[in-house]
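Exercise (ungraded).
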Amino acid sequence: MLEDLFSKVKTRASYDKPRVPKGKVSIPENLMFKCPRCGKVEFMDAFLLGNKVCPSCGYHARLTAQERIEQIADNFTFIEYDKHMKSLDPIDFPGYPEKVYHLRRKTGLRDAVITGECTVMGSPCAIGVMDTRFMMASMGSVVGEKVTRLFEQAEGRRLPVVLFTASGGARMQEGIISLMQMAKTSGAVGRHSKRGLLYITVLTDPTTGGVTASFASLGDIIIAEPKTLVGFAGRRVIEGTIRQRLPEDFQSAEFAQEHGFVDLIVERSAMRKTISQLLKLHQTGGAGDGKDSLG
Amino acid sequence: MAKTAWDRMQIIHEKNRPTVRDYLPMVFENFIELHGDRFYGDDAAILGGIGTLDGQPVTVLAQVKGRDLKENQQTNFSMPHPEGYRKALRLAKQAEKFHRPVVCLIDTPGAFCGIGAEERGQGEAIARNLMEFMQLETPVISIVLGEGGSGGALALGVCDELAMMQNAIYSVISPRGFASILWKDPSREKEAANIMRITAEDLVEFGVAETIIPEPDGGAHIDPEAAAEAIRQYISETIPKYMKIPIAKLLENRYYKFRKVGVFTEQKGVNPL
């Protein structure tokens, strides 16, 4: 019986053989991961178990919003807010509804941010995560409204906010409406802040444009993942303006920290613990200690 | 017949279109310019100071377009650096202390994109202004004189009431940038301008602007005095309205002026196609 089993495997292996074109090695798809930064090839398992960080060079690949929440939130504690909100087409821009529709089908997201609440190692917080797969996480009406409601909800319930930012900037397809989301979200951050509540921003790759110039820069504590792109203007725009090449590390998280705009750079493997520690440091003694909690 | 956005862009780029330097002596009396952000430097792209209008002291914050190349080099073509926005915020806070209304005059292609601007935190400077102006305990009125370019304009645009000069435009990105990014073809600038909905009337329709200040036929450059008089009259009528509102109510209204802007649906299963 045991012999049969072995022979079966052997036969199967021999069936596989002719399918491989000459001169090529047959490797199942997704078995290996090639790091876009250091170029090394590593086992996909090692890459995924490390939360999509390259085991060789520490390159932090982008996470989807879902993956991020799974990494940060305690199991089964995440409750999503405003799940069904979808954008419309304020300036009747040709092709915009189609583009949004196809991205919804492709990514399973309804727009570029997921918001809700959860606990992180036991500490409750409101949480938002932007997802670059959806139009490079550009901020239109839906992102603006969901982030605003996140802060309003957290203000009412006296919860701290943890927001993972990533964005290419304002969503041009929504015209001036998208620009106004910068003022709207910043206003909501301000009201939450006035109530003595904590806001932690985590800058993830890439955080730029109108999101940098609004809520992403307004955290009480600003964390960044290593090597994250953080800036206002796009690299090519600046190079076009000044007509010279920019240094490699320009607009990196390390560059931003050196210039005083980032509190701490935290590796992904330590993110959950760092956030939990910061949340705990703000749980007692301040206005945000929940003693007069409404919720 | 209403002019297209592109027609208006030609008007606001007229060589003789009045700038804030022309308007200042015609609109305000006793104006004294104040300089510097107290951190880094003094950005000539944003002018700040105190003057009076109908005897009422007001703080004026304005983006400065040059009237010729030399002036434009001084003011960096009205593209502010972070220190410009920080100067504006410092003077706005000063106005708050004395409960003096603030008038912002917007006229910029956008915040400057360069190495120094990034090093000194262009994003942070704009974000800070948005948050702080939203809570500024004194009335704020903004007027777009010509070009309202993106976040660089919005940093002086968080206000109780926004007015547009009749031919002014206000947009999330320049039509050229829009065409270049979305169509990979900057030469389709004119087409972009006309579909982006950036005119004074568009902004009133979206609830982003409240008022349109009339310009002389053909544009403000035809008769700068008349344009200045229209601006003066608008400010003179508007400030007392907002000075009467209790601060808490004023701030609540200001928040909801921006809070309400957004176009979305929460219906389940809505298919946009």
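Further reading is listed at the end of the chapter. For now, observe: The beta strands of chain A are 32-34, 41-43, 79-81, 86-87, 113-120, 123-130, 161-167, 199-207, 221-224, 264-265. The first strand of chain A starts at residue 32 and ends at 34.
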